[in-house]
Design a protein that fits this description.
Number of helices: 9
Oligomer: single chain
Strand order of the largest sheet: 1-2-3-4-5-6-7-8
Number of domains: 1
Family: Belongs to the DeoC/FbaB aldolase family. DeoC type 1 subfamily.
Keywords: Cytoplasm, Lyase, Schiff base
Pathway: Carbohydrate degradation; 2-deoxy-D-ribose 1-phosphate degradation; D-glyceraldehyde 3-phosphate and acetaldehyde from 2-deoxy-alpha-D-ribose 1-phosphate: step 2/2
Function: Catalyzes a reversible aldol reaction between acetaldehyde and D-glyceraldehyde 3-phosphate to generate 2-deoxy-D-ribose 5-phosphate.
Strand content: 15-25%
EC number: 4.1.2.4
CATH superfamily: Aldolase class I
Shape: globular
CATH architecture: Alpha-Beta Barrel
Amino acid sequence: MTAKLTRAELAKYIDHTLLATDATNEDVVALHNEASELGTFSICVSPNMLPVGDAWATNNEPVAVSADQEPKICTVVGFPSGKHDSTAKALEAANAVLKGAHEIDMVIDIGMLKAGRVDLVQADIAAVRQAAPAPTLLKVIIESAALTDEEIVQACEASEAAGADYVKTSTGFHKAGGASTHAVALMRKTVGDRLGVKASGGIRSYDDAMAMIDAGASRLGMSASREVLAVAPEA
């Protein structure tokens, strides 16, 4: 078991997330400023909220964002269903990078995977990778709670073959649920140390976060970052 991480150490695992459909520009700026205060690795927001501080700006006046400790900017592509044409996903990714995204979390078409068309899933990921090449970080959301173990392995292998940097458990929007330690451990076993593993969906406590890290997660997506970090040891 991983030694208990301090507040500052755990913060560096976190993508502080706001993907609510009713989020406003002011909400996203508040998220950014909170992430800066907490020291989280990044914020993860919807693509139409980029650039942070400029989206939907009142009277075209940007809202000030904190520069004390700049978090990375992550956004989502093909979210939350993954049922988007690969061309649309690629364009969305390229546009997000132009608007300041450092990281892209794309959703695969799990129906395509379940139909046995792993080749098309890989091509879908490759299209986004081509549109958002390194140094942009590409994470692939496989919706692990809706997959069998065999399908989880297939999705991870397709992600690696297509050039992804991370595999990610969940959108947090699927009825099957979010991250599980079983899925995280299987994903880590499949990709080894070659890719990162992001656990996301349903992580609401310090114990949840530590369990995911113990299972192999190298990044955590969560909206309850302040509450989780508040109970983490300071040193």
